[in-house]
Design a protein that fits this description.
about 200 residues; mainly alpha
Length: about 200
C-alpha cells in the first residue's frame, strides 16, 4: 500500500473539484453531500488498512460504495419525494420515513436505465459483482469475518481493499466534478490519476 501517494492524489482531486454545484437545488446538494460522505468512509478505509484491520476496512468499504451509489442515484433517478426524505432534518419521524429508500440492487437497476451513465455503470457493476458477497460477509460477521479473525490477513488482501477504496474515491471526485458544471473538469480528474497507478486498482 502506498498511503502517502493516495493522500497526495486525493488531496489534489479535492482541490480540483472544490467548487459549488452548478444548480442550487436540494437534489444537487444531496448528491454532493453523499459523494462527500463516501469520501469520509474512504478516509476511514485508508486508516484501517494502514493499521492492518481488515474486518473494519472491508465493512467500511461497503458503506463507501453505498454512499457513492446513492449520491449518483439521487441526482439522476430519485423522485422529488425521495430527495425530500433524505434531505430532511434528522428526527425520529424522518428516520422512519426514510426507511423505504431503495437499496443497492434497486438503485443499480435505476442507474442502468440512464443512457449517459453506461460507462459509469460498468465500473459500478464490476465492483458489485466482484466484491459485494465478501463485503456482506464481513459486515454480517459471516465466514470471511470469522476466517480473518482466526488468521492474519495477507497484505495482498489489505492492498486490494485499499486500492478498491481509492478507485471508488476517484469515481466520487468525477461525480463532484460533474456537479460543478465546469466543462472538461471530469477529464482533468481522470488525467491526474494517470500518475498514481501505485495506489489505484489495476486496469482490467
Amino acid at each position: 500500500m502506498d498511503r502517502t501517494r493516495a493522500e497526495e492524489l486525493l488531496g489534489h482531486l479535492a482541490d480540483l473539484v472544490d467548487l459549488t454545484t452548478f444548480e442550487l437545488s436540494d437534489r444537487h446538494s444531496l448528491s454532493r453531500t453523499l459523494a462527500i460522505t463516501s469520501l469520509h468512509f474512504a478516509a476511514s478505509v485508508r486508516i484501517l488498512c494502514d493499521s492492518g484491520l481488515v474486518l473494519g476496512s472491508a465493512a467500511v468499504l461497503r458503506s463507501q460504495f453505498e454512499a457513492l451509489l446513492r449520491g449518483i442515484w439521487s441526482l439522476h433517478c430519485a423522485s422529488d419525494l425521495q430527495v425530500d426524505k433524505l434531505s430532511s432534518h434528522l428526527s425520529v419521524e424522518s428516520q422512519q420515513t426514510a426507511k423505504n429508500i431503495p437499496l443497492t440492487a434497486e438503485m443499480l437497476g435505476a442507474i442502468n436505465e440512464v443512457p449517459n451513465l453506461a460507462n459509469l455503470m460498468v465500473s459500478l457493476r464490476e465492483f458489485k459483482d466482484s466484491s459485494w458477497l465478501p463485503l456482506n460477509s464481513f459486515v454480517h460477521s459471516g465466514i470471511h469475518a470469522v476466517h480473518w479473525t482466526k488468521f492474519e490477513p495477507p497484505q495482498a488482501l489489505l492492498d486490494q481493499i485499499f486500492r478498491s477504496s481509492n478507485g471508488l474515491s476517484v469515481l466520487a471526485f468525477q461525480h463532484l466534478a460533474i456537479l460543478t458544471g465546469v466543462p472538461r473538469l471530469q477529464g482533468e480528474v481522470v488525467s491526474v490519476c494517470a500518475a498514481y497507478s501505485s495506489c489505484l486498482p489495476a486496469p482490467r
